[in-house]
Amino acid sequence: MTYLSQTEAYHDECRENLKKITANIINRIDDEGEEFSMLKEFFDAHMDELELSKDFYNDQYRAMNEYYEYMGEHYPEETAKYDPDFNAIDYEAKRLYVTWRMEYWFTVFFETADDFGLSYVYFFYPSDEEAYKVKYMFDATLGTRQTAEGKEVLYLGDEIYEDPAEHVYLWQAWSAGHPVDGFDITDNEYGYVYTYSAPVVINGEKIGFVCADVDVEKVKSTIMTNVAAQMVVLAVILLISILSLYALLRIYVLKRVSMLEKNVKDYSDNKDAALSEKIRSKAKEDDEIASLAKRFANMIDELEEYMKDLQAVTAEKERIGAELHVATQIQADMLPRIFPPFPDRPEMDLYATMTPAKEVGGDFYDFYMIDDKRLAMVIADVSSKGVPAALFMVIAKTLIKNCAQSGKEIAEVFYSVNNQLCEGNEESMFVTAFLAVVDITTGKMEYVNAGHEPFLYRHDGKWSWVHPDSGFILAGLPDFEYSSQSMQLYPSDRLFFFTDGVSESQDVDHNLFGEERILETVKKNGDKDITKMLPLIREDIDKFAGEAPQFDDITMLVFEYRGADKK
Questions:
Q1: pTM, two decimal places
Q2: By the 8 A CB rule, do 384 and 431 touch?
Q3: I need a labelling partner for 477 at 20 to 30 A (CA). Which of 80, 326, 335, 460 fits?
Q4: Residues 211, 196: contact at Cβ < 8 Å?
């Protein structure tokens, strides 16, 4: 509790400090106004032509003098101005001015980091917002490059991908146009840090981010120092309390407890129901030990009644078992079980199985025609197991099917289902899912992935892994944008989909079945009749597991594309 309270307090303090630091820098940028926006525009267009010294702290004065000398020679009327009229000066004057001012701003960012004990303070702006790419204008890593003259200058304009799943608060702040209450945690080659991001808005236009990083280990060290100090004080208090309590226990408690223990032993040996009255007669004090003695006496009296109730409890357990059996059958009936499912469509065939780890499970598969030529296939795994997972599975399966049959693009299907599942999801359950839509007239397959396993694909008689881009889980993050992929199927191609109950099946030594064994068993059985392929794979899984109990729901689906001209 001490650690948690210190962590929360110090995180709040750290977040407030980062707010103040970034706000201070943004206020200084606001003071520059249009000048900072102009610097960014020139930088974005001419970053490769700027040569900023790595020793920008000292070099900024030389750069300033070069600018004023050039202006005095070519634009004497502009020399006295702090902010030049960019429309009135030539490219070289602009380059000299931007070089000077950027070296000044580099100094501001690094001095701020040093003054406040931060790891980094820097500025970047989105270069491709839809692809979550940003470009660094004032980078904290100070990479360098060699000019044609052999001069070592700063490398500018580094462009990287900022993963929205890892930088949640950053992109939320950009979307909102103002800082949000939280910081992202990153652990990479630049360190293990908390990052606080504040968007810069000039004249109502967002131009980039000011970000401040603080070392996580430093934060943890401060927290642990505070916790250790409190724990020393608590330990001293606890030691004194224990010694005092022990003295009281010896005087007022242990003797009576010893007597009660003897009575308990007598009942254990003789099962004499009359002992309850003897215990009550000696429990005359009004304290916890007397209460314990009376309760033990009551327990003796209630034991016979309990034995009578045991039969009723056993009957109730049998009733619940019967109801769970019915629930198992109902869940099984919800999944398509008639194979072949489309006997009038010779262009394709498929087969699927689902074996729950408990009476009911959270895995499911589904397939259905969207229209005359498009087949949809779904395989999914709900977090957790048992009845809660089964209920969530019914909701997810229904939502996916309704959205898919409405004609939406498959990425939009997952977007819509994800938002609906996020609503009222107080138990924080989630679903990993995979949706594929095959045009059986052309063999083109589009698919979208929501954190699910890879799948196997056979072409020209060879099986190989397909590792689709892993989108975020369903019911995990509202308004997550999913992306679809596509691949071309040819006659006799097969697809094998599965849930993690296959890859994570364990033997008695807790070894996992794993992807290597999956590939081996699929290669061995992949050319068998489509209705025999999955049972043979399941035999290999069971043989591997041996006596180990089934750890998770096991769901598999195989699809064969035979071609539009198949007779």
A1: 0.47
A2: no
A3: 335
A4: yes
